[in-house]
Amino acid sequence: MSVLNAALVGNPNCGKTALFNLLTGSRQKVANYAGVTVERKVGRLTTPKGLAVRLLDLPGAYSLVATSPDEAVTRDVCAGTYRGEPAPELLVCVVDATNLRLHLRFALEVRQMGRPMILVLNMIDAAKRQGIAIDVPRLEAEFGAPVVTAVGIRRDGGQEVLRALDLPPPPPPPAMPSGSDFHAEARRILADCVTRPSRLGMALEERLDRWFLHPVWGMVILFALMFVMFQAVFSWAQPVMDLLDAGTAALGQAVGTLLPDGALRSLIVDGVIAGAGSVVVFLPQILILFLWILALEESGYLPRAAFLLDRIMATAGLSGRSFIPLLSSFACAVPGIMATRTIQNPRDRMITILIAPLMTCSARLPVYTLLIAAFVPERRVGGLFNLHGLVLFALYMAGILSALVVARVLKNRDRQEEHPLLLELPAYRLPNPRDLALGLKQRAVIFLSRVGTIIVTVSVLLWALASFPAPPAGAAGPAIEWSLAGRIGHWMLYVMAPIGFNWQICVSLIPGLAAREVAVSALATVYSLGATDSDAANQLQPLLSAHWSLGTALSLLTWYIFAPQCFSTLAVIRRETGSWRMVGITAGYLFAMAYGAAFIVWRISLLLGWGGSP
Amino acid sequence: MIETIVETIVIVAIVTASALYWVRRLVPASQGMFWRTSADMLRVIHAPRPLRDRATQRARQTEKRPTGCGACTKCGGGGCH
After folding, report:
1. Closest CA to A357 of A40, A576, A503, A29
2. CA–CA dist A213, A306 (Å, integer)
3. Following CA atoms A401, A407, A412, A414 in sequence, which dihedral angle do they give, to the nearest 10 degrees?
4. Nearest-CA distance from B59 to chain A in Å?
5. Which of A31, A64, A526, A547 has the greatest number of C-beta atoms within 10 Å?
6. H or E element: which one contains A583?
7. Which residue among A39, A457, A577 sits closest to B22, beta carbon to beta carbon?
8. What is the pLDDT of residue A596?
9. Rg, C-alpha atoms of chain A
10. Are strands A133-134 and A194-195 parallel, antiparallel or unpaired?
11. Chain A neighbors of B76, CB-CB under 8 A
12. CA distances from A53 to A46, A89, A160, A403 (A)
């Protein structure tokens, strides 16, 4: 059976990925801002008439004269010069029907390539709601290629596209004479085929922008949104967390009673259940954090936040274009670093890659919330705000501010011409509950699969290291002190004692390099094996508050604001920069900052009398 | 006695599987080496042909040269172009 090679192209944020997901049944990330797709994705579909189609989803581009790495991918694939990728037999050019003035210009540029193409007017429902009337047959005649309509976010919104794919590929559209002005041609076609409503229809959007983009009120709204987000992370999640905590403890006790006393029971209860269970309880908090981020993404607010922060970013020598990669790094630094491909200035891109690890990734959330819950009293500030949420907000802000300072320092070393920020502000949209649910499901699957693979395997290995060799006959103290992990922890103390860490923390730092949240499971395993009271083994939080001083907790929190990232982040830095030197610089400066800041915090804690026994 | 032996075997299997998971994650090249060695061993012991072919195929798959973002090969040395 023959397979049709087709590629989705179009401006950023025209809904290519939503259409791709709809047509192929994929689950690629979509959001209401430009630059979400930075590399090509492949999917397969079968049309109603049984034609097999291999569909490529290409990064959005404003022009085929590429200015950034992601645009270069689109240009090369369309031109058939991308190695390992056959030239598409059909280009499916997607345009936002509500923003044809901008998107039709790029469609004309694609038409100029002289390849068979169809034009898809996506978001046609939104265009109708805004009173935009498009004469599709006339547009088809003017454009010189088949034109179909679509609604990428509706289940039946891709029917016309499927029917168009069923037809034989159309002949290449006529090219314009060389030197023609694409803007002028787009304006001419729009004047002939599109009727726009009076500006009254845009009044609500403009009124909203007057507040959201206001230099003062805009910033107030932005900080209020962030503030409420961190309050919600603590306030809303607690009941579900308590349930998960109780479930984990009950599972540990049930398995403990089922298995006979011995090494296998210790492996399952103290290693796997204590380790993985201590991390699973943070799932509700992570989902609440992502619910906010996804809702802001979908609503179209995030590019406005980037616009607002452009001035602050400029004080650090960066443009607002760095905002989206840095924001993505709050989920995980890996997609954040990949998203830097949308930054045109190579130096800005390198600096954004260097500072992305300073954004607080979701893997650090379990470490922060564990220590905050253990050491910060649960009380209201001003009768309104949760103190835990305030401290979490402060930790996130510390990461952001340190990133800006590092960017400023790096920019000062090599001043280059500034690139002004050109940003497309999308229309406001009510978040689609299906997309929100899909996004949360993806985050939950990612988190739980990490628990099932990375965290369980690390817990097993750490259990082995913390259980063997067994203590000699007649030895005093917990057996773990004689184990290999115990010895490694004590050796590391020579370096880590000056910043207030104990040997258990030292042991947890090594597996923490695999993934941040593993540090929590490692602490749970180490304390579980060292505990004499089986109930205490199930509750890490009270154990920490009983064994650590406030100074130690503050020092560890400070360490985690800056600490060198997990292996995956360092690997993606190597891949994106093609340089081991950059990996070394990133790991080196983050380690130096983490150690220096933790040292200062520990010394201040000692001066304040917070460094003694709890 | 038998219970202790079974318990030891189960523990060794779990710990070894976890260790192999991390070796594969940290040193992906080790996977190719593993399948190549397995294919050689299967050939030596005259294992059934489908088994040998499968191991050889996996060895070939894992030995493919790594490429850049999305299989891009234009990133030789100086980063992404």
Report:
1. A576
2. 10
3. 180
4. 21
5. A526
6. helix A580-607
7. A457
8. 95
9. 27
10. antiparallel
11. 578
12. 6, 10, 15, 45
Mean pLDDT, rounded, of chain A: 83
In sequence order, which residues have a C-beta less than 8 Å from that of residue A30 and are 6 or more positions away?
A: A15, A17, A18, A21, A36, A435
Q: Is A453 on the interface with B (CB under 8 A)?
A: yes
All structural domains of chain A, each given as residue ranges with its CATH number in brackets, are 3-197 (3.40.50.300)
Feature table: binding site of A for Mg(2+): 21, 24-25
Q: Are A600 and A565 in contact (CB under 8 A)?
A: no
C-alpha to C-alpha distance for A127 and A495, rounded to whole angstroms: 63
Burial class (CB in 10 A: 0-12, 13-18, 19+), A494: exposed
- Token output for B25: 């994650």
Looking at the DSSP bridge assignments, the partners of residue A439 are: none
Kindly list the residues from chain B whose CB atom is less than 8 angstroms away from the CB atom of residue A260: 3
- Which residues of A are documented as binding site for GTP? 10-17, 35-39, 57-60, 122-125
Is residue B66 over pLDDT 70?
no
Q: What is the pLDDT of residue B64?
A: 56
What would the mean pLDDT of A550-576 be, rounded to a whole number?
A: 86
Write a three-state SS string for A47-108. CCCCCEEEEEECCCCCCCCCCCHHHHHHHHHHHCCCCCCCCCCEEEEEEECCCHHHHHHHHH
**What are B's interface residues with A at a Cβ cutoff of 8 A?**
3-4, 7-8, 10-11, 14-15, 17-19, 21-22, 26, 67-81
| Residues on chain B touching A38 (C-beta within 8 angstroms) | 69
Fill in the DSSP letter of residue A451.
Answer: I
Rounded CA separation A34/A29 (Å): 12
Average pLDDT for A565-576: 81
Q: Which segments of A293-413 are extended strands (E)?
A: 380-381, 385-386
Spatial contact of B52 and B43, defined as CB atoms under 8 Å apart: yes
Longest dimension (CA), chain A: 94
- Separation in Å, CA of B18 to nearest CA in chain A: 5
Among chain B residues, CA nearest to A267: B11
Tens digit of pLDDT for each residue in A219-246?
A: 999 888 888 888 888 778 888 888 888 8
Nearest to B21 among A83, A338, A457 (CB): A457
Taking CA atoms, what residue in A is nearest to B4?
A: A262
Residues B38/B51, Cβ–Cβ less than 8 Å: no
Specify whether the CB–CB gap between A77 and A56 falls below 8 A.
yes
A505/A9 Cα distance (integer angstroms): 50
Looking at the partner chain, which of A260, A458, A575 has a beta carbon nearest the beta carbon of B69? A575
